[in-house]
Design a protein that fits this description.
Layout: E1 2-6, H1 13-23, E2 29-33, H2 36-40, E3 44-47, H3 53-62, H4 66-75, E4 78-81, H5 83-86, E5 89-92, E6 98-99, E7 104-110, E8 121-126, E9 128-129, H6 134-137, E10 145-150, E11 152-156, E12 164-170, E13 172-180, E14 183-186, H7 194-206
Parallel strand pairs: 1-2, 1-3, 3-4, 4-14, 5-7
Antiparallel strand pairs: 5-6, 7-11, 8-10, 9-12, 12-13, 13-14
Helix pairs in contact: 1-7
Length: 209
């Protein structure tokens, strides 16, 4: 089993790689690459990210990764993390509106300025399950605390809300995990989330959607 982490020059890709290496079975290989051929030949894909939507889209386009990402979304087990979730939306309010990959109908909106709620949303928070999913089923409810670092959240259209697996509340309630068929997306960082995050990544290694 070959798992490829897409390396488009942004985000904590090495942290994701180390976390996956620590939980993957021996017959799995974990590769970090921006080579489209290597990505297209992978069995599973991880698309992590931190940073701004505009610079993320520029990097994806400059490295000619758009088509291979869309192909992976169509037919491979795919895990998107943080910006790897937001960039799949229609657009982001960041950088005076940025066109994204338009895979999921919705917009990445900035958290409102509310007293006592600092931006970015930084640190540990719980997720509340809306419907079960393989990646979190084996994590006890009381242990579903994950690490977040983000200033924007996914605001989905009514049609796209079928993607919602879990929500989190921080000044407002937003989708913290999305999934449909072979694609699973987290707003939180499993690679920074201790035992619960490692269990989610271990589940991804075993996942057969």
């Amino acid at each position: 089993m070959n798992i490829v982490i897409i390396d488009y020059g942004m985000g904590n890709t090495h942290s994701v790689m180390r976390a996956l290496q620590s939980v993957a079975p021996k017959h799995h290989t974990i590769a970090l690459t921006n080579n489209p051929d290597t990505i297209s030949q992978a069995d599973k894909i991880v698309f992590p990210g931190q940073g701004a939507a505009n610079s993320t889209m520029q990097a994806i386009n400059q490295q000619q990764l758009t088509s291979v990402i869309m192909q992976a979304l169509a037919n491979k087990p795919f895990l998107g993390i943080c910006m790897g979730l937001q960039v799949l939306l229609t657009s982001s309010e960041e950088n005076n509106d940025t066109a994204c990959l338009q895979y999921i109908s919705g917009t990445a909106k900035r958290f409102p300025s509310i007293k006592d709620f600092k931006i970015p949303h930084l640190g540990w928070n719980s997720i509340d399950e809306i419907k079960p999913h393989y990646l979190i089923n084996s994590i006890p409810i009381k242990q579903r605390y994950f690490y977040f670092v983000h200033s924007y959240y996914a605001h989905l259209t009514e049609q796209a809300r079928r993607w919602e697996i879990a929500t989190t509340t921080y000044s407002l309630t937003f989708p913290s995990m999305l999934a449909n068929n072979n694609v699973a997306l987290t707003q939180f960082h499993p690679e920074k989330s201790g035992a619960s995050g490692l269990q989610l990544l271990s589940n991804f290694c075993a996942w057969k959607p």
